[in-house]
Each structure stands twice: as C-alpha cells, then as structure tokens.
Design goal:
Blueprint: H1 17-22, H2 35-51, E1 66-70, E2 73-77, E3 84-88, E4 94-99, E5 115-116, E6 123-128, E7 136-141, E8 147-153, E9 165-166, E10 170-175, E11 178-180, H3 182-187, E12 193-195, E13 202-207, E14 221-224, E15 235-240, E16 246-252, E17 271-278, E18 283-298, E19 310-316, E20 327-334, E21 344-349, E22 354-356, E23 360-363, E24 374-382, E25 387-394, E26 404-407, H4 423-427
Antiparallel strand pairs: 1-2, 2-3, 3-4, 5-6, 6-7, 7-8, 9-10, 10-13, 11-12, 13-14, 15-16, 16-17, 17-18, 18-19, 19-20, 20-21, 22-24, 23-24, 24-25, 25-26
The chain binds fe (ii) ion (FE2).
Fe (ii) ion is lined by residues 65, 112-113, 162, 233-234, 416-417.
Keywords: Iron, Metal-binding, Oxidoreductase
Binding site for Fe cation: 113, 162, 234, 417
Family: Belongs to the carotenoid oxygenase family.
Length: 433
Amino acid sequence: MPRVDSAIPLCLGRTKQQERAAGRPLFNKLGDLYGKRGLALLLLQKLFRSLGVVRTENGAGTANTALAFHAGRLLALHEGDLPYGVRVLCNGLIETMGRMRLSSSWKTSFTAHPKIDPVNGEMLFLGYQFESNPYVSAGILDEHGNLVRQWGVELPYPVMMHDMAATENYLVLMHLPLCFDPQAMVKDNTVPFRLRRELTSRIGLLRRDQASCPAGGAEVAWFDIPGPGFMAFHVATAFEDAHGNVKVYACQQDNINLDLDAILCSEELARLTEYTLVPASGAASSRRLSSVVGDFPVVHPGKATRPCRWAWLATMETSATCNTPSFTGIAKMDLTAQPGTDACAGCIAYPAGTYGGEAVFVPRTAAAAAEDDGYLVVYVYDTLADASYFHVYDAVKMGSEPLARIRMPRRVPYGFHGTWVSEQQLKSQVMWV
Ligand SMILES: [Fe+2]
C-alpha cells in the first residue's frame, strides 16, 4: 500500500485520581443511571458533592469519548469534564499529562466534539449544564491553546448538546430537545433523557468575533427547523456558501429510543440531513440527503469549517437487533447531491460477522489535490474469529477490500470516536499540564 504517516493506536490515560485514591467508583456513569436505582445514584452524588466527599471541580469525566490534537497537545475528551492532555511515548504507551486549565471564568465542562479551524488553528468549543442559565458556554482557544474568547448563552430550557459545528464566521449551536428528565428515568426505567418532539429543534449562529461575555448575554441568531423536534448526536460539518447562507450537515434521528435493549424502528435511525440557514431572512429548511442509515460522520480535517463536498459515515444495519451500535461498513456522501438524488456515492461493506467503529479520514498527503484523496482507517472486530483488525481503505474508490489489514494482538473493544495523529504531530507534542 502507499505509505501513510506512522500512527499509534490511542488509548486512555488516567483521569479519576479521586477514585484511585478512594479505591472505589465515586462518579456516576450515564449507563448506571437507569430507573429507581439511577435516581438513587443521582441523589447520592448530589449529597456527596454537598458534603465535599467528591469534588467534581477536580475532574469527574472518563475522557473516553473522543480525541483531538491541538496546539501540540493530544486531548482526551468527555463532555462531562475538561480535556485531559495525554502524551504518546516513543514506546507506544500513553502518559497522562494532566487536566486542562482554563480561565476561572469557565464554569462548565468541555465538549467531546470541538472543531478546529484549519485556516487559523483556532479550536472552537462549548460546554453545557442543566442547573441554571447560561446553560451553554462557548469559547475559542487560539492556535497556542490560549482561551481568547468566551460567551455565556442563555436557553429557554437545557438540553444535551453533544456536538456542535463551526464555520468561517460562526460557532454553530444545536439546540435540539433531548431534555434531562429524571422522572422519565423512573417511570420508563430508562436513562434520564427524553426527546420532547413537541418542542422545536433550533440551530443557532454565534459570531466568532463577538466580544466575550462569560456570564451570559451572548447574541445568537436562532433558526427554527420546520417539523417536529428531532435529535442529531453528531454533526458532519458546516460552512458558509457563496450566498452567505450557512449549511449544516448532521445525522438526524426523528425519534430516540434510549432503551439499550430495544430494536430500533426506522424513525429512530440516523440519516444524513442538510440544514440551510439564511441569515438575511431568518429562514431555515432541511432535507434528508440519503436513505442510508449511518452516524459518526467525518470530513477531511483540512475542510472543517469551510465548504466541502465529501463526508463519510459509519453505516448501521437497518435490521439492527438492538440499540448497541453495529456498524457494518462506511458510506461516502456527496454533500452537493441535488434534490431528488441520493447522496451516497459509495459503500464499503465489512465481511459478514465483522463490525467496526468510527472510520477516520486521513488525507494521503498534505498537498493532496482532491478532497477525497486519502484513506479511511478503522478498527473492526471479526465476531466469528474473535479477532480485531485495523483496516485501511481507499476513500476514493470505496472498495470493500482493504488496502491493508493488520491483526491486533488482542481484542479492541468497540469505542466511540477516534483521531489520526501523524508522525510529525507526535514529534511536536509539548510537555504540558
Ligand atoms: Fe460523539
């Protein structure tokens, strides 16, 4: 196969020093918050916090959702905490450098899905919480990792805001009505969130050059998306088109089923959808781009925040037997597909009985002429042979035969998100806490 930069599979560093010291779990995980037991755990956590038994301000997250490389730092991310800097050592092991230090005015957590502007190197991010307004805070780190702007954003009600987007001039907020609902947790024996379809899904544009207002009052232009409220956990990308309109691409689910053992119905499956926001008129519209079911979208990292054509999704079996992701391949989506045509331009199918995770797009060279000139890399697990592999695919041709297939020395569990770190980036890592 053609050479690509060497990379090291990334795993987690140590985050919860408090739990290590206590010798037992101290913090709730979302998967524990089910039914009456979940409510009891929530109340217990609140009590522990009020008594000072646990100090969430010292870190409470698992840093296991996603990774991002910014300002010489590899960040392990979880939306319930601040980022942790981890360093890949020359022997391939991971060293935890420490928890990110932000300004004392930053009172909340940090998304697992920040966006990096490839033009100026800024990282745009947000954090959200459910207790009081401003329910959302957003900010920008400059190319050196310094917090240069920070805003507080009031919302009429708090939501889970898992992902975000950014364009050349805007930070894009997804105010979608997946609401915190501990009553439903007990009543329906589910996790404490409920999609309130009677509420309107909104997308907000916050100008990146707006003056900081950490305590709240940020100006956001909100666009109501027609139709019942929906959820989109993941945003592929966003950009401003030649008319000054903002295009946002996300994997929309018309309904949510949070019962992990449930068989999903069609409206609960994610499909790539385009949202067009018109700042000049305040109008907004949406259209489904493909019938292909898929999530965990990625684009060329050099095209983030700017106009682009291609996105790749992890495809799911439409006959999914349960809510647990079973990604069966990768779909290539043409964001410029005309109305009435399906945006899917190619599909990679894993062998029968083999399932994967998020596929990461790796440009073939920094100077690649074509946006899709590169590779898709993914961990897959062969359930029949009980073996994990690292697969490399051609992102142009989208053939199901991998260019390279590397057997892993042991099982690699299904994960959430990944990233590609080049040899050059690894060498540029800074010592930092
Ligand atoms: Fe995610």
